[in-house]
Specification:
With about 80 residues, the chain is an all-alpha fold. The protein has one domain (about 5-80). The chain is about 80% helix and about 0% strand. The chain contains 3 helices and no strands. The chain has helices at about 5-10, 15-35, 45-80. Helix 2 runs antiparallel to helix 3. The longest helix has about 35 residues, at about 45-80. The chain is elongated and about 60 Å long. The chain starts with a helix and ends with a helix.
Protein backbone atom coordinates (compact mmCIF):
# COMPACT_ATOMS: atom_id res chain seq x y z
CA UNK A 1 0.00 0.00 0.00
CA UNK A 2 1.34 3.38 -0.99
CA UNK A 3 1.06 6.09 1.65
CA UNK A 4 2.16 8.97 -0.57
CA UNK A 5 -0.77 11.44 -0.54
CA UNK A 6 0.20 12.98 -3.88
CA UNK A 7 -0.02 9.62 -5.64
CA UNK A 8 -3.29 8.85 -3.86
CA UNK A 9 -4.92 12.07 -5.07
CA UNK A 10 -3.40 11.68 -8.54
CA UNK A 11 -5.21 8.33 -8.87
CA UNK A 12 -8.54 9.97 -7.96
CA UNK A 13 -8.81 13.07 -10.18
CA UNK A 14 -12.53 13.63 -9.51
CA UNK A 15 -11.98 13.60 -5.77
CA UNK A 16 -8.94 15.86 -6.11
CA UNK A 17 -10.81 18.25 -8.38
CA UNK A 18 -13.73 18.39 -5.97
CA UNK A 19 -11.41 19.17 -3.06
CA UNK A 20 -9.67 21.90 -5.06
CA UNK A 21 -13.05 23.34 -6.13
CA UNK A 22 -14.19 23.50 -2.50
CA UNK A 23 -10.96 25.18 -1.40
CA UNK A 24 -11.30 27.78 -4.17
CA UNK A 25 -14.95 28.50 -3.30
CA UNK A 26 -14.19 28.93 0.40
CA UNK A 27 -11.21 31.18 -0.41
CA UNK A 28 -13.37 33.32 -2.71
CA UNK A 29 -16.10 33.61 -0.08
CA UNK A 30 -13.60 34.72 2.56
CA UNK A 31 -11.98 37.14 0.11
CA UNK A 32 -15.39 38.62 -0.73
CA UNK A 33 -16.30 38.94 2.96
CA UNK A 34 -13.01 40.73 3.63
CA UNK A 35 -13.32 42.95 0.55
CA UNK A 36 -16.95 43.91 1.18
CA UNK A 37 -16.45 44.74 4.85
CA UNK A 38 -15.83 48.41 4.02
CA UNK A 39 -18.68 48.88 1.54
CA UNK A 40 -20.88 50.56 4.13
CA UNK A 41 -18.65 53.66 3.95
CA UNK A 42 -19.19 54.15 0.21
CA UNK A 43 -22.79 55.23 0.57
CA UNK A 44 -25.17 55.09 -2.35
CA UNK A 45 -22.34 55.28 -4.90
CA UNK A 46 -21.08 51.86 -3.85
CA UNK A 47 -24.44 50.18 -4.36
CA UNK A 48 -23.66 48.85 -7.89
CA UNK A 49 -20.47 47.23 -6.62
CA UNK A 50 -22.34 45.65 -3.73
CA UNK A 51 -25.10 44.30 -5.97
CA UNK A 52 -22.66 42.98 -8.55
CA UNK A 53 -20.58 41.32 -5.87
CA UNK A 54 -23.52 39.72 -4.11
CA UNK A 55 -24.91 38.49 -7.42
CA UNK A 56 -21.56 36.89 -8.22
CA UNK A 57 -21.37 35.32 -4.78
CA UNK A 58 -24.94 34.05 -5.20
CA UNK A 59 -23.97 32.31 -8.43
CA UNK A 60 -20.86 30.91 -6.75
CA UNK A 61 -22.92 29.53 -3.86
CA UNK A 62 -25.43 28.07 -6.32
CA UNK A 63 -22.62 26.33 -8.22
CA UNK A 64 -21.26 25.06 -4.90
CA UNK A 65 -24.61 23.60 -3.85
CA UNK A 66 -25.10 22.00 -7.28
CA UNK A 67 -21.60 20.49 -7.11
CA UNK A 68 -22.33 19.00 -3.68
CA UNK A 69 -25.65 17.58 -4.89
CA UNK A 70 -23.94 16.08 -7.94
CA UNK A 71 -21.23 14.61 -5.73
CA UNK A 72 -23.85 13.12 -3.39
CA UNK A 73 -25.69 11.61 -6.36
CA UNK A 74 -22.43 10.15 -7.68
CA UNK A 75 -21.60 8.57 -4.33
CA UNK A 76 -25.17 7.28 -3.88
CA UNK A 77 -25.34 5.76 -7.36
CA UNK A 78 -21.94 4.10 -6.98
CA UNK A 79 -22.92 2.71 -3.58
CA UNK A 80 -26.28 1.58 -4.95
CA UNK A 81 -24.58 -0.23 -7.88
CA UNK A 82 -22.02 -1.90 -5.63
CA UNK A 83 -24.85 -3.33 -3.51
CA UNK A 84 -26.17 -5.15 -6.58
CA UNK A 85 -29.48 -3.29 -6.92
Amino acid sequence: MNTNPIQYFWRHPRRTGFIIFNVIVVALLFAWANFSAGFGKDGLGGLPNIMLGYTGMGFLLLAWVIAWLAWAYLVYSRHHRSQGH
